[in-house]
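FAQ: What does the model actually see?

It sees only this:
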Amino acid sequence: MRYISTRGDRTPRQFCDILLEGLAPDGGLYLPVSYPRVGQAELTRLRQVLQTEGYAGLAYEILSLYIDDIPASDLRALCEKTYTEAVFGTPEITPVSRLGQSGILLQALSNGPTLAFKDMAMQLLGNLFEYELGRRGETLNILGATSGDTGSAAEYAMRGKQGVRVFMTSPHGRMSAFQQAQMFSLMDDNIINIAIVGVFDDCQDIVKAVSNDLAFKQKHRIGTVNSINWARMLAQVVYYFAGYFYATSGNEQRVSFCVPSGNFGNVCAGHVARSMGLPIDRLVVATNENDVLDEFFRTGAYRVRGAANTFETSSPSMDISKASNFERFIFDLLGRDGAATKALFSEALSTRSEFDLAADPRFQAASTQFGFASGKSIHSDRLRTIAQVHADCGVTIDPHTADAVKVALEHLRPGVPMIALETALPIKFAETIVEALGAPPARPAKFDGIEALPKRVKVLPNDVLAVKALIAEVS
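And it is asked to produce this:
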């Protein structure tokens, strides 16, 4: 399998090259030259693999379609090391259950070490990094950006890993107290937390700016763990297959997924699964008040908002107005035209902060060919949905998952199961749960008192030079 850039660079690269590289040299995101297709017979076989070998076996089968530069025995061992009941709390890893009589199925993705769906990919990524750096005898400085959950998931996955140092940027004061405590209380020497005075989009811009400085990137061995890294997204593709198999008894059934989304990485993994042939009817994008993606799928206009117009909400991990992974989907929407994609993301967004595809005939393919739909949820919707789900079936969901459930209910189709993707456990957003239910959510014992732990974080201005100076100083 070879990989190309969304902006036209077709220099052949293998998986382990792009694993360590992150962004392509032309500023684009990596995708495989083509998506491997999975027919009915193969779907039946994969269903049997999940039943007999578990989630780790399924992960190996999906990953092996994209990775041919890691020996099969090593890749299987990495999957078996990653996806265990001891790490994820259940043998199914991502179990699916019914939310009462709502017609919604909930796929649990947040049973990992940091109680968020990001663990599903990050635990694998940590093992992949350590494996490949060990093979090469190299080290890597990982630079990341988080709006809440990527940071802790990455840090817990990378802490103690040989050859890896993590520099994680986050928007100063914009994460929940629990999220901040998870990250900033880590005292491992290879973990460096950086709070940027700004919003998540500012953090993400810094990561991209550093990655686009090829001389600095090479000198300091910079890699990424954000979902701009293809390996992150590839790991997430697996749970769409697992969710489909858990929710259906045969391959004749189609299902839909509703995915809370800010940076478009989670739902883009669903787009990849659907492109491979998984029988997905619709991929429903659920946004919060920062509704850039919902606006696009409704109107064809993609308008990036500045920091002043990026709202601080009660589903803070989605407080994003510049969805990095959206470029991967637009590349496919435009017939994999790298020049056209570059014109939109490198030129139109840099000059006008927007582009409009409403008049482009290909825009209709977003819903007809690729199955996308969308909806929006606001704070009052979240409170109402959390309360309703709790009253109906005794389940407490976090605010981001509530966004998904609210929008999923608006897109139900007769005879088509709708799976809402859970994104985090409610304890990470206790204040909103108290507002909705009048009582705090259950707290796993291992996190008792986490907010009171000593914290280590460096506050920096929204300045890429300041971040570069810190990286150079530490590394």
